[in-house]
Amino acid sequence: MTRTLTTFLMLFCISTISAQIHEVGISFGGANYVGDVGSTQYIAPKELGYGIVYRWNRSPRHSFRFSYTQLKIAADDAKSDMGSRKERGYAFKNNIKEISLGMEFNFFEFDLHEPGFAATPYLYSGLAGFQYDEFHFKKGKLYEDGTNKSLAIPIVAGFKARLGQRLIISAEVGARYTFTDNLDGSAASDTEFESYNFGKKNNKDWYFYSGLTLTYTFGKNPCYCTP
């Protein structure tokens, strides 16, 4: 009984204190979109994006992550490699405000309690909610329809490294598969404008955010209790 209690206290002590290792920081990068207007190139960051990031490091191999990001996306048929789009001549800009929550998995152990250099590739996914501008095209002219909200699944790959004792720098490329087809005005939600819809109706829009994140770590070291 004593041995069992001692083991439980050791595990409780380690898990509780190590769970206090947190990261908070800022991110800057570029964004682009893929859908029914403009270029079909997937990773081509052109518009500015920025945000804040928080990580709760539950173990050296995984973290819970929250982020808030603001970014712009834009597209122009004139820059497409498709002749039909160039002839059509549509162009747009959209503003996106995103909140994302999910889990980050490290390929190698990334132990913030150990001194010295540490680095690892990682993957991140979860669920994102975002607000975007709604609009539609009519006879080649863009008309604004307010704002709307939707969900997206982030699919992110990155690499992070430790800078000194308190700073972490990360570089990542992330795709967002959205649940809407109207980031580009091709599928207006208002039935009044349905006759002006265009493009592939069954294909949802994507947007991408690629950038750098710098975070500051804080929290207590684990106690590693002994019996």
Question: What features would you highlight for this structure?
Answer:
elongated; single chain; 10% helix; 2 helices; mainly beta; 227 residues
Structure description:
The structure is a single chain. It is built from 2 helices and 8 strands, in the order αβββαβββββ. Residues 7-20 and 222-227 have low confidence and may be disordered. The radius of gyration is 22 Å and the shape is elongated. By secondary structure, the chain is mainly beta. Helix content is 10%, strand content 55%. It has an 8-stranded antiparallel barrel.
Give a count of the beta strands, DSSP E runs of length 2 or more: 8
What structural class do the secondary elements suggest? Answer: mainly beta
Q: Uncertain spans, ≥5 residues at pLDDT below 50?
A: 7-20, 222-227
Q: What shape does the CA trace take?
A: elongated
Our Rg estimate from Cα atoms comes to 22 Å
The N- to C-terminal Cα distance equals 13 Å
Number of helices: 2
